[in-house]
Amino acid sequence: MIYTISIVPTPTPRPRIKSILKNNKKISIAYYPKNYTLYKNNLSSKISELKITPKDYSELYVTFGVPYPKTVIGGKKNKIEGKPMRNKFDCDNVVKGLMDVLDNLNVLNDDRQIYILCISKLWTNTPGYIKFKLI
């Protein structure tokens, strides 16, 4: 079954590191920026609504529909609809968030179980989407 989620795909950023003092010891805490945490929470709630049956999946096919930049106007939008998005973020950065959410929701036992991964990024005139299929 192919699942579609209406959401603007967001690549996984590098974690930020914050040092704090605890019991007179300096410790470092890794965290993600607030906008990425909100994205993952939103993605998680939307995937939960799909009620995907947990299985021993081995393949993930995913298409990320990325909205046009605000600089693209008029007839240019029709020319690039559905065309590959070759600039901006890497495919592996944008799929990491999806796989982490699938793992956290126990749809996957572990995201390492996926050994076939097909990713595409396309321009869209919609607000953005993630379309995926697990096999």
How does this model look, in words?
This protein is an alpha+beta fold and 135 residues long. It contains three helices and six strands, in the order βββαβααββ. The strands form two sheets. It has a four-stranded mixed sheet with strand order 1-6-4-5, with helices on one face. Helix 1 (34-50) packs across helix 3 (91-104). It starts with a strand and ends with a strand.
**Which class best fits the helix and strand makeup?**
alpha+beta
Please report which band the strand proportion falls in: under 5%, 5-15%, 15-25%, 25-35%, 35-45% or over 45%: 25-35%
Low-confidence stretches at least 5 residues in length (pLDDT < 50)?
none
Distance between the termini: 9 Å
One letter per element, helices H and strands E, the order comes to: EEEHEHHEE
**Strand order across the largest sheet:** 1-6-4-5
Rounded to an integer, what's the Rg over CA atoms? 17 Å
Main sheet, how many strands, which sense, barrel? 4 strands, mixed
Mean pLDDT: 92
Shape: globular
Looking at the chains present, what oligomeric state does this protein adopt? single chain
Task: Give me the number of helical elements.
Answer: 3
Q: Give the helix level as a range of percent.
A: 25-40%
**Count of β-strands:** 6
